[in-house]
Design the sequence.
């Protein structure tokens, strides 16, 4: 089991500080972090300017007391007798909440839109993949403007430098710190030496001329690869972002899990996927070039049955990503700290500026993490990969069901709804003869009765390594009709990118295999 935020490759002790005097950059500067004893972010405050609450496991960690900073911060072994306070990753400690499970919420429970979002803890170990010499690098792409401002202040620079850096990375798509000329030369050199690269390298880019879907394969700083998909709808572009390198959930119909899990992505590595796509979309040399972004003719480009009621009546923009779904390679709930941080970063108006209600995070049903995400209270949509109406079938298709059966999953869904007041969708991949029979539709209707939700039926994308096939159109329509007859809102998703290895993880496998 990989703890959220654990990076197996980076889990060892820090080689040396970053953004500290004495590093490889110019002498002087960044000295306050050294005085504060340990991490360069020890005095950093959250974006609201308040000093973070000092809670075991979230505050600055001193070497030699709680063990190596990384091990302690990432759930590693503690010194005997060290305080053991359970906290919710991504948020400050919440009183009266035990073991990360929210207390039952009544009908009048506050919803996310009515209260302020909790502050993020300071990011003392937001480090990227090791540099060429084994150093741990700063994940600058995964930091909020206020955090970057604090970092600069700690280094003796004015705080507005942090906002300049954030805007350059996330609004203007800088791919190289040295090219951010608004920053002083010494700062740029130091960032280039001590921060993780702000952009991944492009390995492959495939375009589906029929529906305008673009699939990217990116190489990360440590050589690993991830996929990102850009989908064109009538309301604009949606980016499907990967949250892990590989996946270990073992869903039977999925290509991403065939090689297992390699590591979690950093928040900055997820944000860099959005920045790359925005850079592509806004590049004037691509405008009108249908080899880059085809505009499908006729109905092919229209999302006629997308289950996106909030898209109605909005003016479409096609020069940037307007929605994000964390549904690419990986199980987002296994990397929840980084996913929450990523969402906070791309929500920033001075960056990608993606609205909360235009964000969706999926899960195969990790109930404990779903409860933790509900506590954070981000007003985003939760998409639960259901794929079967009973435990017996779901155990076979989605193995995590053996750990969290439907009897635990559905109450967790209700808790998420009560706590956030947001939308809940169930994803249901239709597999010919496996889960698309009339009795499955009727059973699903009974299972979801009384739950405020939407079911998205997804014709299965072919995966060469799996002996499973998509339901024929008549079976899809029959399934939808039966569900609607049972009073469950239900749509059939368009099959996007069918000609470009559309199945999650398929392009990565094919490119790495040289196919
Ligand atoms: S469907 Fe999602 S959770 Fe399941 S194996 Fe694939 S990437 Fe992992």
Sequence:
């Amino acid at each position: 089991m990989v703890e959220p935020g654990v990076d197996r490759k980076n889990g060892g002790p820090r080689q040396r500080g970053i953004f500290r005097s004495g590093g490889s950059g110019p002498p002087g500067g960044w000295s306050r972090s050294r005085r504060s004893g340990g991490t360069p972010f020890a005095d950093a405050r959250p974006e609201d300017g308040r000093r973070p609450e000092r809670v075991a496991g979230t505050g600055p960690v001193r070497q030699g007391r709680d063990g190596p900073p990384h091990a302690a911060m990432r759930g590693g072994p503690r010194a005997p007798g060290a305080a053991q306070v359970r906290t919710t990753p991504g948020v400050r400690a919440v009183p009266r909440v035990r073991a990360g499970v929210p207390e039952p919420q009544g009908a009048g429970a506050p919803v996310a839109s009515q209260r302020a979002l909790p502050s993020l803890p300071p990011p003392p170990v937001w480090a990227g993949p090791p540099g060429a010499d084994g150093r741990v690098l700063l994940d600058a792409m995964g930091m909020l403007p206020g955090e970057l401002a604090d970092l600069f202040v700690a280094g003796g620079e004015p705080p507005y430098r942090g906002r300049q850096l954030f805007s350059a990375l996330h609004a203007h798509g800088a791919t190289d710190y040295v090219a951010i000329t608004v920053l002083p030369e010494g700062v740029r050199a130091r960032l280039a030496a001590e921060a993780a690269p702000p952009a991944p390298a492009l390995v492959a880019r495939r375009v589906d001329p029929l529906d305008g879907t673009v699939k990217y394969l990116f190489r990360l700083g440590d050589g690993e690869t991830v996929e990102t998909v850009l989908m064109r709808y009538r309301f604009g572009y949606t980016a499907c972002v990967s949250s892990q390198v590989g996946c270990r959930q073992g869903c039977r119909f999925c290509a991403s899990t065939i090689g297992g899990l390699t590591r979690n992505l950093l928040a900055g590595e997820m944000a860099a996927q959005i920045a790359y796509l925005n850079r592509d979309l806004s590049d004037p040399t691509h405008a009108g070039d249908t080899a880059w972004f085809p505009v499908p003719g006729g109905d092919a480009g229209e999302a006629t049955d997308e289950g996106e009621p909030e898209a109605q009546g909005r003016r479409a923009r096609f020069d940037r990503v307007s929605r994000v779904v964390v549904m690419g390679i990986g199980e987002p709930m296994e990397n929840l700290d980084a996913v929450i941080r990523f969402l906070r970063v791309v929500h920033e108006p001075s960056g990608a500026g993606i609205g909360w209600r235009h964000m969706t995070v999926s899960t195969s049903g990790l109930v404990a993490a779903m409860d933790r995400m509900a506590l954070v209270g981000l007003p985003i949509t939760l998409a639960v990969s259901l794929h079967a109406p009973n435990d017996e079938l779901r155990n076979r298709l989605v193995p995590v069901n053996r750990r969290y059966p439907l009897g635990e999953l559905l109450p967790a869904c209700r808790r998420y709804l009560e706590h956030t007041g947001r939308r809940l969708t169930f994803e249901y991949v239709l597999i010919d003869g496996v889960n698309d029979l009339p009795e499955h539709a009727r059973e699903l209707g009974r299972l979801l009765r009384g739950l405020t939700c939407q079911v998205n039926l997804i014709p299965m994308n072919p995966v060469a390594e799996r002996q499973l096939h998509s339901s024929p159109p008549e079976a899809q329509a029959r399934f939808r009709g039966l569900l609607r007859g049972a009073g469950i809102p239900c749509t059939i998703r368009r099959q996007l990118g069918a000609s470009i290895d559309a199945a999650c993880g398929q392009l990565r496998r094919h490119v790495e295999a040289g196919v």
